[in-house]
Amino acid sequence: MPVLVASDLDRTLIYSAAALALTMPDARAPRLLCVEVHEAKPLSYLTETAAQLLTDLGDTAVFVPTTTRTRKQYQRINLPGPPPKYAICANGGHLLVDGVTDADWHAGVQARLADECAPLAEVRDHLQRSADPAWLRKHRVAEDLFAYLVVERELLPAEWVKELAVWAEDRGWTVSLQGRKIYAVPQPLTKSAAVREVARRTGAELTLAAGDSLLDADLLLAADRGWRPGHGELADTGWTAPEIVALPERGVLAGERIVREFLRAARQAP
Q1: Are 211 and 7 in contact (CB under 8 A)?
Q2: pTM for this prediction
């Protein structure tokens, strides 16, 4: 039976320049490979060692990129290794098969959201009304499924985020703060549901996962084994669970360690 590896991307496998956390002397810094270019500028990286490990992983397991990114944002990433047959975008809202959205899956997601939580328009309007222009930089709606704000993190009041989380929870939504972005995501919109569907289609009996944010918690809990880096929302809150390994590494070296652990576990699987 195949092994399924479902991994978050940003700040788990790939890292912006600001998130690399290169704390060692410059001469000892790892060689980096750029895997994303946006508007003619390099944007995301992993180590060259991680790139080779990821190539090996693609030959060993069913590797499924699992991201909150929109399809357009995901498709500008050029990961090493075989092109993944499956990818999960928009936090589970889109299941891509050979790069194309599975229409039936997406329709099912939309039906669940309509039944189980407040509409996107209500949440979007609340975000726009309550956010302070002093720290708000952008407001975005992603794939007509969820909303997020880009903020000046150092000016963002922690109390505002807590109040937003309470307001959202009462309406069936989840709030997640990741770097300079605040996400408001419907609770039924989960990575884990899409990963279970891929496991069903592939016949995988072992699922491995990794992630760093609150939106990855359900993914990690749904896996047989999981890893989280030493940075991010989950690390900051001390979140853990059975079968989840809390790694000490931070930044791009955490990404390398995660791929190494994926490959070791996949090769050891019966």
Answers
A1: yes
A2: 0.93
